[in-house]
Each structure stands twice: as structure tokens, then as C-alpha cells.
Amino acid sequence: MHRLHRRDMLKLTAATAGVLTLDPVTFAHAAGPASGEESRTVSGRLRPGAPDYVYLPVEVPRGVRELAVSYTYDRPEVAQGTHGNALDIGVFDERGTELGGRGFRGWSGGARTEFAISAEQATPGYLAGPVNPGTWHVVLGPYTVAPQGLAYEVKVTLRYGPAGTTPRPVYPPQRAKGRGRAWYRGDNHLHSVYSDGKRTPAEIAAAARAAGLDWITTTEHNTTSSHGAWEGQWGDDLLILTGEEVTTRNGHVVALGTDPGVFVDWRYRARDHAFGRFARVVHRAGGLVVPAHPHATCVGCGWKFGYAEADAMEVWNGPYTPDDEVAIAEWDNMLVASVREGGRWLPAMGNSDAHREPQVVGLPQTVVLADDLSRTALLAGIRAGRSWIAESSSVHLSFEAVTGHGAHAGIADRLPAPPDAEVTVRLTVSGTPSGATASFVTDQGQLYSTRVPADGKVSWRTTPSYAAYVRAEVRHPADTNDLPGAMVALTNPVFLGRE
Predict the structure, then answer these.
(1) pLDDT (0 to 100) of residue 31
(2) Out of 251, 370, 399, 487, which could bridge 377 as a Cys pair, Cβ 3.0 to 4.6 Å?
(3) E strand map for 261-312
């Protein structure tokens, strides 16, 4: 039994969050036997205020065919309102644990109690490949620690024998047949069995087709292991993009549409000033930076990194809740600041973040105007804000602003009319529930609201001097007099007046 050593060091650097490195685990067969297996068990206890990551070095000799790890930890009862124990796990190989380095080999968070890696295969969440000799590191992430502390036990097993061949991953194509320039529906925040979800890729693809989606993005927590898991699931009717939900202790961000196989590190907090570096990693990999559920109340979910590097903002995550209402209010305030100060504006998007039944893939979905059904065109549409959000594919809308002289502008466009020119804003919507309301929101706030009529057509007149932008909201009937109804659809703005 290998126990926590009193010389264990707490390392704090500007590049990473707190790190505790334990004494290394060694095995009797330094050169490795021809066959068989060896195991070592490590136990220890973490106190409240433990570092974010605890590294257990494992000295791997030559001749190892497979590395297997299992772990347990205690879950004592805690008082109501107090967090109990939650311990995540992952692993880095002999190439090291440097932030943003090449050593990442997998992460399952708290979704699994064991994993194994060999050249031929790996547990979902982990990357298959040779188990090369050198110092590997099992990484433990004490997500929350109870007042009583967290007692853990980690078992490391080395299985010896000839290494197999690592299969070459088959990644999804980057375009599908599509309909030319059209509105395409996508869900860009989804989880499968390759992180903490319960659906297989095949089940997600089937759910996406049933939801009327044209494309999806695979975004597992802190791992790229799902990128090669979709063979046979794409087709002319469904495009599959690759990405990652970068799950830090100070918020989550969707790396949307990155190159297959590109890993984005998550081991930092806002105080480490490292986020900009990894936002650039996303951009170099051709993806978008999208802060996810920025006002979610789960531990570590609230967004603390700001929006300077963001390309869009997930303002609606899953079934509509007060968290989304707060996110939309924050987003709208940023729109106001952008028109007043002349800065760039941040488009809104919505995704399901579906993990398992009965969570609905495509609730909500982002509807994007793109030149074709391809990664490049879709990401360009999202970045430009040529999009709106719907609770399902049964909801359709069009939204534009026009002048009396025939000039018109659609979502994300600008209508360059004089300050006092009369502008008519037009919304046409279908597939809404009975009693739904449509509202027009501007930099002055909500200025017009009405019940959606039978023909779904709503219009309102204003001027650029009165409204610098107009966006549309369609909502369910309110449950109470104090709170607005849940969202049915939400558009990005149309801008009015000359810049």
C-alpha cells in the first residue's frame, strides 16, 4: 500500500491552478516481464481547500501492453447546503503534464470509476495508443471536498505483453449535401458515453435526425476521444462537427467546430490568465469560442473569464430556466454597449447540452443562414450572427426591417436609414403554442409586445434614432404575473441607422 508522503509538494504557478504531486508509484519489474500483470494501490486523504489537481506519477517500464486504473473515494453525509465529495480522474502519458502539452491521454471526470488504455483500444473518454515507458501521471480532480475530508484509493495495474497496432481514427467529413444557401438547424453542445453522457453516438445521431437537425457538434468534457467515434452516423442529411466542452473550475466553454483530434486544455482558473492562450488554440484549429451556460448554478459552471475572446454566447441551454433569462439579459446589455461604443457585438446561440434520456436533443437549436451545409459555412454564419434560436424544428420564423423606399435588412444586417426615417419591423412566425407572445426588444428595452395572431405576422414601426437595433422574442404564455413565459424563439438583432 502506497500512502500520501509528508514531502508531497503544493506547487502554485502562474500557468496552472494549484497542483499537488504525490510520490511516484514504481513496479518490481523495472524492465517488464514478458506477460502477466502487476498492481499497486495508493491511498490518501484530501482536506477542504485541496488543490484543483492531484498528480500521481506512475513509472511505467518497458513491455507494458495495457495500463488500467480504478479508484474509489468516500462519500460522507454532509449538512444540507454543504457540498459532499466529488473526485474526477484522467491520465497523462510519458510526454508530461505541461499545460497545453502533448501528454493528454484521457479524462472521464466523475463519470467512471475505472479505465484502461492500450494500443488497440481505450475506455471511452481515453485515447488508444502505445503504453510507452516513462513517467505517466494519473490526475485526480477534487471537484468538491466535504468538511470531513476526502479519502481516496487508486489502483494502478500494468498488463505486460506485445503491443498491438493503434487503429487510425476515422473522422467525420466536413460537409454534407445540404440545400445550397439556406437556413440550417444545429445542436452544438452534446454529450455521449465518451464523457458523462448515457447515449451512444448512434443514439445521438438518431435523436438528431428525429429532431429535424441538419448538423450536430460532439463536445465531450475535456476530451477529444469521441472525434473518431461517429463512423457510419453521418450522411447527406446530417453533418457532424468535432469540438470539446472545455470544463474549467471557473466556467465551461464550447470549442465549436475545431479540427478533429485537437485537444484544448482546461487546467486553469481566471486568476491564471491562461484562457486567452487556449482561446487562440481553438481559433488556430478553425473553431469558435462559445462560453456555455454562463449563469448555471452548478459548482464551477459560472463564467468568470469575460467575453473578449468569445465568438458567440450560449444564452439558452436546454429547457428554458431562469439561468437562461439572466444570460439573455447579460447578452442584451452587451449589445447595448456595442451600439453605444461602436464595438463588435456578440451573437447569441442555443444548444441542448443533452446528456441522457429524457433530455431532448435539439431543445433548443440554433438556426443558421449558411451558403452550404459545411463546417466553414456554418461557423461563418454563427460568427456573423446570421442565426436565431428555436425550441424545436416545428418553429419557423422570418425577421426583417424595411424602409418606405424598399431598403431592407435581415438578421445580423444593418439597415442604413437616416435617423428619423420610418422603419417597419416584420416578424412572421409559425409553430408556436397557443397564447404565445411576440416582442420586439431594442437598446431601449422591450418596446412592443403582442399575442401572436393566427397568421403569425407581427409588425411595428420605429426610427433609427429611437432604436439602434431590434431583435425578436417569442415566448410561451407566462405562468405567473411576475415572470415572463419560457422562450419559444429568439433572434439575433437587426441594426438600424448608419454606423
Answers:
(1) 65
(2) 370
(3) 288-292
Characterize 317-345 residue by residue with b for buried, 16 or more Cβ atoms within 10 angstroms of its Cβ, and e for exposed. Answer: bbebbebbbebbeebbebbbebbeeeeeb
pLDDT per position as a tens digit, 277-306 = 999 999 999 999 999 999 999 999 999 999
pTM: 0.95
Cell of 285: 484549429
Residue 327 φ/ψ, nearest 5 degrees: -60, -40
Domain 169-393 has CATH 3.20.20.140: yes
Measured between alpha carbons, how far is 392 from 371 in angstroms, rounded to an integer? 22
Q: What fold characterizes domain 394-499?
A: Immunoglobulin-like (2.60.40)
Residues of the chain with pLDDT under 50: 1-17
Half-sphere exposure for 151 (CA within 13 Å, toward CB): 4
Q: What is the pLDDT of residue 227?
A: 98
- Verify cis geometry, omega within 30 degrees of 0, for the bond prior to 358: yes
pLDDT at 18: 77
- CATH 3.20.20.140 residue ranges of the chain are 169-393
For 94, other C-beta atoms within 10 Å of its C-beta total: 17
pLDDT at 402: 98
Residue whose cell numbers read 498488463: 159
What are 408's three cell numbers? 431592407
Q: Which residue has the cell 493528454?
A: 104
Beta partners for residue 248, in sequence order: 251
* pLDDT (0 to 100) of residue 124: 98
Q: Which of 458, 427, 452 is nearest to 437 (CA)?
A: 452
Cβ atoms of residues 175 and 237 within 8 Å: no
pLDDT tens digits along 11-26: 333 233 479 999 999 9
Topology, domain 2-160: Jelly Rolls (2.60.120)
pLDDT number for residue 1:
46
Cell of 131: 503504453
Share of the chain above pLDDT 90, in %: 92
- Backbone phi and psi for residue 302, each to the nearest 5 degrees, phi listed first: -65, 135
Q: Where in the chain is the domain with CATH 2.60.40.10?
A: 394-499
The Cα 401–Cα 385 span in angstroms is 16
Q: What is the location of CATH 2.60.120.380 in the chain?
A: 2-160
Radius of gyration of the chain (CA): 25
Note the pLDDT of residue 35: 79
What is the Cα–Cα distance from 297 to 59, expressed in whole angstroms? 40
Which letter does DSSP use for residue 316 in this model?
A: E
What CA–CA distance (Å, rounded) separates 128 from 116?
9
Contacting residues for 42 by C-beta, under 8 A, at least 6 apart: 1, 2, 3, 4, 22, 25, 56, 153, 154, 155, 156
User: Which pLDDT does position 12 carry in this prediction?
Assistant: 32
